[in-house]
Every structure is written in C-alpha cells, then in structure tokens.
Structure prediction request, 304 residues.
Amino acid sequence: MDNDSIFGTPPEPVFNLKGSCLSSELLEDLLYVQATHNEKTAQAATSADGAFKQGTIAEMIFLICERFNQPAESRYLALDIFDRFMSEYVRVHYKKIQSGDKDRQKKVKTWKTFMQKLKKQVKLFMVSCVQIASKMCSHYKILTCRKCSRFLLDSGLGCTSTTILKTELTVLKTLDYRVYGLSPLTYIETLLEIMGHNDETTSIKILHETSLKVMDLAYLRRNVVYEKLFQVATGESSGYQEDREKFALVEHDAMFFASAIIGAASYVIDKNSSDKVISHVGRITCIPVTDILQFATILVENIL
Prediction:
C-alpha cells in the first residue's frame, strides 16, 4: 500500500468539497479573524520591514524549499521568518555596537567584522528558517538537522547537526519564539474558498495554481512592484520618510496583496473574466475594486 496516500499532505487544497468544506458561517468568522490579524500586523509595520523577503533572497529560499520538496506554505512562512529574524538580528547587533566602544573607528571596524561574519552565515540562517517553517506546516517531510547538514555540506558549507540546532535556537530566541504568522497564501486560500462557495462557475483550482506562480514572481520582483504602487498611490517617484512610513501600511497589507494576486492570476487565465473575479474579491474583502484592479495591473505589467 502507498504510504503517501495515507500520511501524505495533498499537493493543493481541496476547495469546496461537499461534506468537508467549512460552512458559510465559519468561513465568515475565519475571514473576520484573518482580517483583524492582518490589520494589526500592517499597522505595526515600518518602512524598514520586508527588506529581506524579495529578489535573490526570496529566490534562494524558494530553491531550498524546492530542494527539500516542501509545500507552498513552507516557502512563504520561511521567507517571512527569515525577514523578521534578519531585521531584528541586525538591529540588535547594530544597537549593541553603537552603545559599546566610544571610538568611532573601532565601531566601524566592529560593524564590518560583524557584516563579514553575517555574510558567511546567511545560507545557514536560511536553512534554519526553512527547517522551522517545515515544522509549523506539520508536513510529513519535516526537516531534520541531519538532512540540513547534508544539504549544507553539498553546498560547500560543512555544518554539524549541533551547529544547525544552535542556529535554529538563535533564530527562535531572536524572535522571542514568535515565529508563526499568516502568509499571503493563507488569505488567498480563504478568499478562494469563499469564492468557490459563492460561485460554482469559477475554476478555483486553476486560479489557486496560477496565484501561486504569480505570487512567486511578485516576491522576486517585490521591490519593483511596490515602488510602482507607491508612485501610483502618491504621484511621486520618491517620497519623504513620513510618506514611506505611511505607505508601509499598504506594503504590508497581506489581504490587499492576496486580493491583487488573485486578480492578476485571473487575468493570466482569462482576461475577459478577470473583472468578474476582481469584483467578487472586492465584495468579500470590502477593498475598493479600483484599488485591487490597480495593484493587479501593476503585478501583471511588472512580473509578466
């Protein structure tokens, strides 16, 4: 008997399966809880957040997750964990160096030494974040220290299982063990579940699959995408720090991002029906349809 058929995780969500899907009342409650969480997270964000979850960094973490055959949720959680960890890790060490020796030259030298050491540790930190994410997804292919050690050895970085364990603890302690967060994929799947519940004519599985591909590209081009969105929103190519801080609320609005991803994916599948999908998402989230359309258009123009 194939063990994967018993213990394996489905490769994709089974949307609106009769007898298994949530009721409309529970879906409504779930959406409310996620929207509340999203609002709190977005309001707490700053313009400095998100620097470590885009471009080459996102590509490397996605490749590591692919190498270990992790589910989609793992790569987005790993990227979020890595971003929050690196931001806090660098901030703490910078503050420590600045409050230490009063000699400016020594501070500069200490900072350079720290950065050189950090560059050598980046891949190890990435693997640890993927390892933590794999555990959070309750996936049957949870990464063990031994698997991570073999991977790093093949990558030219020899690390013992003890070193990997210590690194994992460093990540957890730096984040005060608050590692879990809702990734945009969680919002996307909730919105698609509600869409499928309300309209059986929409091909939810194809929309889900395409949304994943669009979101991967959006992360790889995240800086360009949000820079364009900033220009459209403010009418300026650059802005004062105050404007950037206000825009952080938009940049870290995962529900808005998820809505735009679905909108862009629907255009890729069938541009003639994308207006209907975007209108549906707007009604579910109460986000203005014009805003979703504008963001989705930027996504299509900049990633395709």
About this structure: The chain has a mean pLDDT of 87.
